Every structure is written in C-alpha cells, then in structure tokens.
C-alpha cells in the first residue's frame, strides 16, 4: 500500500492492483465492490461450459462476478473501472460485455458530465428559477449547480430522476431530452425536495448532458441494487 497524490491509494487485492480513494467515504457512487469468489471446493466444473477441472484444466475466477470458469470461458482481460482496477482483469463472457459497455460511459459520458451544461433551475415549488451551470464533481459524488448562487446535490441522496423530453415530433422522429426532474433528500432531512432543470440557451449541449446523466442513473441504480 503506497500513497499517491489527490487522495488516492494503490491497494492490491487477489484480483489485481486497484487505485481507490484514500478515504472509503469518497468512493465514486458508480463504483462496484469486488465480488466474493465462489470457493474452489464449490465449483468442480466450469460454470459456463461444464468442463471438469483437473490439473490441466485449471479454474479461473471472473473478477467481476466471482464465478468459476475454465480458461477458455474466462480468458478475456477487460478494463473494469467500476472496481478501480488499474489494468484490465480477467472476466467471463457476460461480464466482459457489461464492462465493455461501461467503457463508453467512462470514455465519453463522464467527460460530458464533468464538463457541464447550462439549465434553468427551479428548486422545489418556488416560482423563482435561475440560470445555472450544472456539472458532476470530480469525485463523481455531487451535482454542482452554479449561477448567482451555488447549490449541490449528493448523487447518493437522489431518490428519483426523470428525464423530460420535448415530446415526439408529428413526423415520429426521436424526441430530444430537454430537462430533468430530480427528487432528493437534502442532508439532515427526511423530506424529498424537487429540483427541475430545463435546457437553456445551448439546447444541443444540454441534451447531450442529459443523455449522459440518464446513462449515469442506470449505473447508479445497478450499484445500489448490488
Ligand atoms: Zn468453460
Ligand atoms: Zn463474470
């Protein structure tokens, strides 16, 4: 274990080297815990192709689901940023697919979210709204809203998220995301508060940001349901 800059540290797990926040309380809300490995004695055969393990056919654990496979069924090494692995790690076919899909989120959408979008923001049922830039914080834990005032929403406190669209066009074209309705519980409160964000001047950028947020929401719920 060694300390590195910006509050992260390297830890070694049986699955590989991981770069995790120094303080566990600052884990990204998109992160997944490492799975428990299925104990060796409980898996005499590959859980995919049923090949019996012996001295020649060795078993391997998928780093994402913890199940046991033969080399053929678990040979792919794929990046797994949600478990903070530094290098690609061995995964089964099903998990490789899921991880590859998430790579796009880490390569593209997360950058869009960090970059931010401009929205007209209404808090609660207030009549007053304000033009604000909304972006994901660097540690992925908060939405920062900045206008004349500053406001933040912790992602883990969001109880529901609805993407608003401009409705389907008469020609049957794709509807475009133009807003978001959030419910969240502010620190120290049990009552959910509503936050409404509507695309402001740059509608295209706002729509991209909302699409990225939609994808983020899916990952968040997956991480919570784990
Ligand atoms: Zn197999
Ligand atoms: Zn797996």
UniProtKB/TrEMBL annotation:
Annotated transmembrane regions: none
Single GO MF annotation: zinc ion binding
Keyword terms, alphabetized: Metal-binding, Zinc, Zinc-finger
Presence of the UniProt keyword Cell cycle in the record: no
Signal peptide start and end residues: none
Residue span, FYVE-type domain: 40-100
Record-given protein name: FYVE-type domain-containing protein
